[in-house]
Design a protein that fits this description.
single chain; alpha+beta; hypothetical protein PF0899 fold; 6-stranded mixed sheet; 29% helix; Phage capsid protein
Length: 297
């Protein structure tokens, strides 16, 4: 936010408030870091800082029991050669914008606030982060039609569209505990120790009510259960109620391009300092077979 404090203290005109172009590399890294630090869920997944609009995310799917013994001077046969299977995904970032403004009254009230520039920058980054996290759960496509859900495909939609991911359904009458037990049974054994179940708080409450009916009301008083069959819950209101995703959290990726563009100008008619932040982002699930998604039939 170059020179915002100077603008607050000096005379304001169309020349000294206009600012267009990209953030510096340091500012871009800081902007992305603040986005992540101000959102509890984004702190737990992988955020990929991208130098360009596309980027390959590689992982290796290594078979088990591939160690062999080959005598000196002999060549391994085909069955003895270990096959490292390359898996992964590709980030293809598209732009999203944040439009914001600071009214003249707020500018005048903060003339003597030395932290106003940082507070403003952090507020923009926090708003950006909250929306990026939400879009990761409810985004349905990247064919923007004017609605929030069509800005990007979020993680859930990426899993839905993948032929490698596990997809399960349940009947509306089925208990939450039975749904989650089936979900756990579908988790790839290679990552079962790292997996988390992303679940809405309402579903966790229903699950604990079912457990208390089997045990005692004291179960609820003591805080209830936050896992099933050894798989911890990742409880978030961002997850749609009645939908469950089991995967390692670091398997979920938010890509953000470091070329972050910002425009600033003063609107005399509205008496407000206006900003547009233009950021290129994408969502991916690196290893699709490590994701199990359950929804109502």
């Amino acid at each position: 936010m170059d020179g915002l404090n100077d603008i607050l203290k000096g005379s304001m005109n169309a020349t000294n408030v206009t600012l267009s172009g990209s953030l510096t590399p340091e500012q871009s890294h800081n902007f992305i870091d603040v986005i992540k630090q101000n959102n509890g869920f984004l702190q737990k997944i992988h955020t990929e800082k991208m130098g360009r609009l596309t980027k390959e995310l590689d992982a290796w799917d290594v078979a088990k029991g591939i160690l062999v013994r080959v005598a000196s001077g002999e060549k391994p046969n085909d069955s003895q050669r270990s096959a490292l299977s390359k898996v992964g995904a590709k980030l293809d970032a598209k732009s999203v914008q944040l439009f914001s403004r600071i009214l003249q009254d707020a500018l005048e009230d903060n003339k003597s606030n030395p932290n106003f520039e940082k507070e403003t920058f952090d507020a923009f980054a926090k708003a950006f982060g909250n929306d990026l996290a939400l879009l990761g759960f409810i985004g349905e496509s990247d064919t923007y039609d004017g609605t929030f859900k069509t800005l990007h495909k979020g993680w859930l939609q990426v899993v839905k569209d993948s032929s490698d991911a596990v997809k399960l359904t349940y009947a509306a009458s089925e208990k939450v505990s039975n749904r989650l037990s089936a979900l756990v049974g579908s988790i790839d054994p290679d990552i079962v120790s790292e997996a988390r179940i992303l679940i809405n708080p309402s579903d966790v409450q229903e699950y604990n009510k079912e457990l208390s009916a089997l045990n005692s009301p004291l179960h609820l008083v003591q805080g209830g259960a936050n896992q099933i069959l050894g798989i911890p819950f990742e409880i978030t209101p961002l997850m749609p109620k009645g939908t469950y995703l089991a995967t390692p959290l670091k398997n979920l990726v938010l890509g953000v391009v470091l070329d972050i563009r910002r425009n600033r100008w003063y609107d005399a008619e509205e008496r407000a300092l206006k900003y547009v932040f233009d950021v290129f982002t994408d969502y991916e699930v690196v290893v699709k077979k490590w994701a199990s998604l359950m929804s109502k039939a």
